[in-house]
Design goal:
This is Endonuclease III. Its EC number is 4.2.99.18. Its cofactor is [4Fe-4S] cluster. Pfam families: HHH (PF00633), HhH-GPD (PF00730). InterPro entries: DNA_glycosylase, Endonuclease-III-like_CS2, Endonuclease3_FeS-loop_motif, Endouclease-III_FeS-bd_BS, HhH-GPD_domain, HhH_base_excis_C, HhH_motif, Nth. By secondary structure, this protein is mainly α. It folds into two domains: about 100 residues, Helix-hairpin-Helix base-excision DNA repair enzymes (C-terminal) (Endonuclease Iii, domain 2), CATH 1.10.1670.10; about 100 residues, Endonuclease III, domain 1, CATH 1.10.340. The protein is elongated and about 55 Å long.
Length: about 220
Amino acid sequence: MTKKERYKYVIEWFQQNMPNAETELHYTNPYELLVAVILSAQCTDKRVNIVTPDLFRRFPEPAILAKATFEDVEPYIRSVTFANNKTRHLIGMANMLMDTYGGEVPDTIEELVRLPGVGRKTANVIVSVVFDKPGMAVDTHVFRVSARIGLTTNARTPLQTEQQLVANIPQELLAIAHHWIILHGRYICVARKPKCNECGLRPACKYYKTDMRYVYEAQ
């Protein structure tokens, strides 16, 4: 199977089997999603969704968060990973939103990555989910699954993975493709023991053909 054929198979399978894929983070506006994505770095969406309701009630807009102290914010997010750093990032992000962007979340990658706590992955999530722009956010799931299936070749960094995916997925599908791959990695193509026997992408998957086929055929 050529790479073009592999992409065609994978895209068509997801379109048929996961037509409404979307983020599992809970939010009601761009500010809330930005906060949630910052908190989700190296942390589960489930954990983030547990802490954000109280956090958003206490700090419902960037103007209020910008005036908060470390001691005000940290107790609300203490159970997430790297809570101390993320507390500083949230306060710094809110201050920059107020000082530079009039309290509004910017809609470009270039502006978003200037915000404290916002890397390219987070910026891509915001522009694609909130502003419906083409963007491919690469987290650990996307990085791992893309390589396993064979959508990427010798991609050693998230940026290289992003570039290869963007080059091969139609622009209008990039936003949902991000969610397809994340959800597939979260529930099927898991890190330690992928559930190949439940996976509809087996015919197109390089990892299954080279590493797992004989394991499952022998069972």
